[in-house]
């Protein structure tokens, strides 16, 4: 277990109050920054610099701009067949709250284990839908808008190895970041693994050939050995995996501003949210 501890610094973003429970707008104005002034991002950067300058030895402050992928074909299928409502360690707002009650269990019990239904294909590793691409474009437009007010470009970018996340990252930052700034694909930033075919990633060779402008960490091997067709990853296992990502970032990165493209909100064992979806 990591010896590091992580806390959220409050007072900057409006998502803080509801982020621990999956609440809040998907794409709030100013990415949720509370300060509405024209000089908001300059002030924000100065405050983060000040926090790091005055922090005691061993303490670091980093800003994570965290995004979820746009709609994929698996999301359409889950809406079509419904998801069983189960107790969770945190409250999550459903994408599709109006599913017919008798069909709630069909996705988890059967269809999530298939690659498609003859109409839709969602496994393995589905693509973005047209709506999903439009959602990524909306994020791109939001970055473009906030650039007018001096939002700092992330100094380091990380991404899940799943296709829907990589495409979302690519669309979101098209013409926003310099071409020389490459996103690093990290195996442990992926969706919950196991059973659901939509969460089985493609090969390293496929990723290299399809997304040549992305870097891939050396730990990501050719085949997806993390995905088990019989066993679904637990919340405790997800938490441990996300801690390893944070430990890696805080252990080796000197940059203060980072962009992470992944799949959902993850919670620390203390109950504090460290990846707030924006």
UniProtKB/TrEMBL annotation:
GO cellular component, one term: cytoplasm
PANTHER family in the cross-refs: BROAD-SPECIFICITY PHOSPHATASE YOR283W-RELATED (PTHR48100), HISTIDINE PHOSPHATASE FAMILY PROTEIN-RELATED (PTHR48100:SF1)
Gene3D superfamilies, A to Z: Phosphoglycerate mutase-like
SUPFAM superfamilies: Phosphoglycerate mutase-like (SSF53254)
Transmembrane segments: none
Protein name: Phosphoglycerate mutase
Organism this protein belongs to: Suillus subaureus
GO MF terms, alphabetically ordered: phosphatase activity
Pfam families in alphabetical order: His_Phos_1
InterPro entries associated with the record: His_Pase_superF_clade-1 (IPR013078), His_PPase_superfam (IPR029033), PGM_Phosphatase (IPR050275)
């Amino acid at each position: 277990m990591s010896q590091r501890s992580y806390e959220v610094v409050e007072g900057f973003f409006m998502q803080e109050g509801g982020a621990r429970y999956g609440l809040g707008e998907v794409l709030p104005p100013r990415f949720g920054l509370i300060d509405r002034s024209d000089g908001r991002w300059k002030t924000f950067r100065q405050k983060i610099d000040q926090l790091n300058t005055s922090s005691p030895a061993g303490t670091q402050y980093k800003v994570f701009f965290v995004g979820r992928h746009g709609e994929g074909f698996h999301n359409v299928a889950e809406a079509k067949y419904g998801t069983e409502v189960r107790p969770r360690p945190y409250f999550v707002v459903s994408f599709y709250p109006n599913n017919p009650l008798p069909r709630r269990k069909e996705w988890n019990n059967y269809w999530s284990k298939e690659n498609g239904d003859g109409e839709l294909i969602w496994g393995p590793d589905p693509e973005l839908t047209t709506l999903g691409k439009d959602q990524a474009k909306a994020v791109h437009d939001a970055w473009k808008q906030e650039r007018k007010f001096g939002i700092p470009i992330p100094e380091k970018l990380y991404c899940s190895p799943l296709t829907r996340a990589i495409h979302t990252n690519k669309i979101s930052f098209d013409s926003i970041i310099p071409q020389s700034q490459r996103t690093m694909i990290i195996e442990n930033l992926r969706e919950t693994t196991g059973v659901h075919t939509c969460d089985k990633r493609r090969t390293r060779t496929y990723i290299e050939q399809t997304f040549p402008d992305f870097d891939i960490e050396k730990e990501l091997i050719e085949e997806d050995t993390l995905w088990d067709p019989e066993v679904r990853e637990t919340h405790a296992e997800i938490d441990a995996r996300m801690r390893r990502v944070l430990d890696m970032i805080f252990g080796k990165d000197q940059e203060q501003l980072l962009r992470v493209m992944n799949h959902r909100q993850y919670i620390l064992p203390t109950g504090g949210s460290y990846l707030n979806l924006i």
